[in-house]
């Protein structure tokens, strides 16, 4: 904090005492001002459940004496937000923090624009609080540059309980059961599957089907190791065929529909099921729906033993202001605090990333998610979500999006052709 002290005339006598006092007050006020930082945060949480969660963050940061400056960019999955981020960073004016994940954190680190928050992480013992599969992603060259807030499970199926009752079915555990139930729902005049025709939603659905059809070892080989023969092999072809078979059970008006509107179709009973990560629960909660009664949340068919994780995190950017730097550290510390982890995740549909939390306030969906996370970790079936930025570089992920989106929309392309294209896409630089 720079002061103008050098320019002040030398005080004398009583006036001197008053002046010294006044200077003290000024210094205190100045320090007080420095304590309140405006922290601009880029995020893409704009649906009902998401906005409620973002509000928790804003409120708790404000309670710390800082000011949240909202930089919300609508668009599920964050594609639009990433474009906005690039524009701001290139202009030399990054936000203090941005919601980015996975390998993109490393890419921003390579650009030299991220700032270390390692002192906060060290002081608060993050290495012990965060599972190692996740803490590694948050570090650049051994230093924390990002803070995680949650764990979302992606391989999920959401079901309207009444719709299922109408066709006298149980939640489908296998793909055969799934298609039998879908057929019955169709006959009963209910759209079996709600989907939004946006590339990231197609990609997410396919990712979930691939896990259910091929299992975690196949998934890992294909999407994490990018193994060429697995990408174009028979299991991938089967996964693509299964994915495409779902299309007959979706509605015609899906093009461009946002994910939360698709969730709305399941909430209202217009549609029966949706494949979506557990941020969907935030929408059910906002609508006042109760899990186990109004809706069911189950692992997607065939994927009961595996867990695709998607961790939201905030990376911190270099800014030219000591006040903002202080605000960044306040935010980093807040994100991992038990109180924030509980309230935020209760709203978001995810589970705390901070280990050892008391989950008694969480519903059965979340409690099951936490238990499954731990057991998948032990069994080696915990896999990162590629459709949600957790594995591949943005270039490879984008190329995969194109292949899957085109395959979904083009009824003349064969599953083998799409598999061959996935293998080519994996080589994108
Ligand atoms: C994911 C993100 C979630 C959720 C979802 C829909 O990528 O991790 O927090 O917001 O997109 O926007």
UniProtKB/TrEMBL annotation:
Pfam family, one: SBP_bac_1
Keywords noted in UniProt: Signal, Transport
GO cellular component terms listed in the entry, alphabetical order: periplasmic space
Primary localization class, coarse: periplasm
SUPFAM superfamilies in alphabetical order: Periplasmic binding protein-like II
InterPro entries: Bact_solute-bd_prot1 (IPR050490), SBP (IPR006059)
Superkingdom field: Bacteria
Location in the cell: Periplasm
Gene3D superfamilies, per the entry: Periplasmic binding protein-like II
Family stated for the protein in its record: Belongs to the bacterial solute-binding protein 1 family.
Purpose: Part of a binding-protein-dependent transport system for a sugar.
Name under which the protein is recorded: Probable sugar-binding periplasmic protein
């Amino acid at each position: 904090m720079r002061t103008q002290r050098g320019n002040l005339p030398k005080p004398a006598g009583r006036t001197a005492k008053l002046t010294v006092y006044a200077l003290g007050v000024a210094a205190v006020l100045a320090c007080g001002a420095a304590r309140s930082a405006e922290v601009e945060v880029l995020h893409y949480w704009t649906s009902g459940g998401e906005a409620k969660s973002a509000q928790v963050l804003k409120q708790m940061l404000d309670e710390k004496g800082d000011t949240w400056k909202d930089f919300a960019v609508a668009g599920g999955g964050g594609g639009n937000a990433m474009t906005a981020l690039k524009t701001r960073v290139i202009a030399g004016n990054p936000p203090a923090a941005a919601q980015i994940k996975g390998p993109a954190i490393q890419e921003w680190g390579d650009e030299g624009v991220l700032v270390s928050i390692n002192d906060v992480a060290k002081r608060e013992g993050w290495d012990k609080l965060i599972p190692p599969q996740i803490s590694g992603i948050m570090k650049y060259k051994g230093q924390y540059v990002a803070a995680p807030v949650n764990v979302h499970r992606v391989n999920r199926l959401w079901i309207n309980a009444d719709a299922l009752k109408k066709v006298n079915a149980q939640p489908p555990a296998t793909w055969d059961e799934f298609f039998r139930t879908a057929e019955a729902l169709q006959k009963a005049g209910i759209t079996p599957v709600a989907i939004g025709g946006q590339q990231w939603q197609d990609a997410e659905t396919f990712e979930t089907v691939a896990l259910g059809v091929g299992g975690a070892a196949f998934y890992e080989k294909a999407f994490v190791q990018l193994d060429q023969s697995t990408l174009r092999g028979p299991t991938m072809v089967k996964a693509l065929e299964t994915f495409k078979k779902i299309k007959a059970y979706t509605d015609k008006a899906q093009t461009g529909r946002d994910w939360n509107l698709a969730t709305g179709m399941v909430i209202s009973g217009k549609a029966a099921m949706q494949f979506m990560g557990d941020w969907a629960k935030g929408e059910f909660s906002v609508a006042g729906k109760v899990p186990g009664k109004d809706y069911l949340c189950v692992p997607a068919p065939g994927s009961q033993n595996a867990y695709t994780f998607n961790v939201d995190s905030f990376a911190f950017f270099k800014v030219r202001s000591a006040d903002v730097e202080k605000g960044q550290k306040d935010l980093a510390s807040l994100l991992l605090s038990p109180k924030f982890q509980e309230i935020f995740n209760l709203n978001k549909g995810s589970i705390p990333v901070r280990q050892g939390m008391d989950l008694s306030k969480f519903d059965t969906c979340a409690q099951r998610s936490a238990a499954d996370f731990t057991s998948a970790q032990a069994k080696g079936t915990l896999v990162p979500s590629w459709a949600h930025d957790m594995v591949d570089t943005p270039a490879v992920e984008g190329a995969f999006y194109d292949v899957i989106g085109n395959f979904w929309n083009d009824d003349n392309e064969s599953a083998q052709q799409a598999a061959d294209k996935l293998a080519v896409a994996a080589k994108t630089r």
